[in-house]
Design brief:
Blueprint (H helix, E strand, L loop, with lengths): L3 E2 L1 H7 L5 E5 L11 H7 L6 E2 L19 H11 L6 E5 L7 H10 L5 E4 L2 H7 L25 E2 L1 H10 L3 E4 L3 H5 L18 E2 L6 E2 L4 E2 L2 H10 L8 E4 L6 H10 L7 E2 L2 H5 L6
Parallel strand pairs: 1-5, 2-3, 2-4, 4-5, 6-12, 7-8, 7-11
Antiparallel strand pairs: 9-10
Helix pairs in contact: 4-9
């Protein structure tokens, strides 16, 4: 079953009981954009804002790391999200950070979750309903069912260099992967994790709305890099956001258990011993 929902399909579901729409917009710090302020100015009807930086492990020195299960449960309960909800996630880039929240929810055991293909850009282009302000939902209960198979730690990635049980796919640009471009975060070395391959996340998307490419185009993209889409893989990137776009693409091709290396290059590239 696809993890995507079209704008037309979502428009027909607006107001439906148990439909929960999340704006999961996030931007690189260098863009100097405020996604919460943008949400308050314009969002889909009934949507609530999911702050990736806020709902994270505050004890970690790395950006927006996955929070502890109990902390995640408390955060989504406060937002009014329950286990019974059918969740649709979107972002203001079309498809970018929404995939991260899709992965987070699945990692904590919530599988009734889809991504709006094309996000806000496609929704606006089709003149579908929008609103402004904020929405407050009653606090709910949310039971977490942690799925460790969807998460990889630094130690697991380190062990995999020797075992080669899983192929590591890096979603960063070829320049960052190859070390010819500097990292956007200060203090990080350039390059990539030993044994990994590079599929730039933008290559799985189609203009003008950053919708996910059709399955035949996705399959060709991976196979052109001699990647068997059904083999065990782990997705990584700069800080654990765009890795989830690769995981989503592979999910659409039938490989629905691709985990993400949460620390990503923000963690790996800061380790002098690596």
């Amino acid at each position: 079953m696809s993890a995507l929902v079209s704008t037309a399909a979502l428009a027909s579901l607006l107001g439906q009981h148990n439909l929960c729409i999340l704006d999961a917009s996030w931007h690189m710090p260098s863009e100097k954009r405020n996604p919460r302020a943008e949400f308050e100015a314009i969002h889909l009807p009934g949507a609530i804002f999911f702050d990736i930086d806020e709902i994270s492990d505050k004890n970690s020195s790395y950006p927006h790391m996955l929070p502890k299960p109990e902390n995640f449960a408390a955060s989504v309960c406060a937002l009014g999200i329950s286990n019974d909800d059918d969740i649709v996630i979107y972002d203001t880039n079309g498809l970018f950070s929404a995939a991260r929240v899709w992965w987070m929810l699945r990692t904590f055991g919530h599988n009734h979750v889809k991504i709006l293909d094309g996000g806000m850009p496609k929704w606006k282009a089709e003149n579908l309903p929008i609103e402004s302000g904020t929405n407050t939902l009653p606090q709910t209960s949310f039971q977490v069912h942690f799925q460790p198979d969807l998460l990889r730690t630094r130690q697991q990635v380190q062990d995999n260099i020797s075992s080669k049980k899983e192929l590591l796919l890096d979603a960063r640009s070829s320049g960052r992967f190859g070390g010819s471009e500097p990292e956007p975060r200060p203090g990080l070395r350039s390059g990539h994790i030993e044994g990994s391959k590079n599929i730039f996340f933008k290559d799985v998307l189609s203009p003008p709305y950053n919708t996910l490419k059709p399955q035949d185009e996705l399959r060709f993209l991976f196979e052109n890099q001699y990647i068997d889409v059904q083999q065990p893989m782990v997705a990584t990137c700069g800080s654990g956001v765009t890795a989830c776009i690769l995981a989503l693409a592979l999910y659409e091709l039938g490989n629905d258990t691709v985990p993400a290396y949460d620390g990503a290059w923000a963690e790996w590239g800061s380790q002098p011993s690596r």
